[in-house]
Amino acid sequence: MERFQHTANLLTVVQTCRRQGRSVIDFFAQALLADSINSQSRPSLLPQF
Predict the structure, then answer these.
(1) For residue 17, how many C-alpha atoms fall within 13 Å in the half-sphere facing its CB?
(2) Strand ranges (E), the chain
(3) Nearest Cα to 27, choosing from 35, 12, 41, 17?
(4) SS3 helix, strand, coil % of the chain, rounded to 5?
(5) Any residues with CB less than 8 A from the CB of 14 and at least 6 apart, and which?
């Protein structure tokens, strides 16, 4: 059941990026880079107002 939740989470990120007109590949690349260097500036899916 846990693997289905991971899949659902990934699909949510993909769908949110598309709705915001953002590149899914760029978002994941930024997230992986931030994680690899333990950065506090991880990308966010929250809209910037």
Answers:
(1) 18
(2) none
(3) 17
(4) 65, 0, 35
(5) 24
Q: What does the pLDDT profile of the chain (49 residues) look like in tens digits?
A: 888 999 999 999 999 999 999 999 999 999 999 988 887 788 899 887 6
pLDDT score, position 14: 97
Query: Does the predicted model carry a pTM greater than 0.85?
Result: no
Q: What count of other Cβ atoms lies within 10 Å of the Cβ of residue 20?
A: 13
Give the C-alpha separation, 15 to 13, whole Å. 5
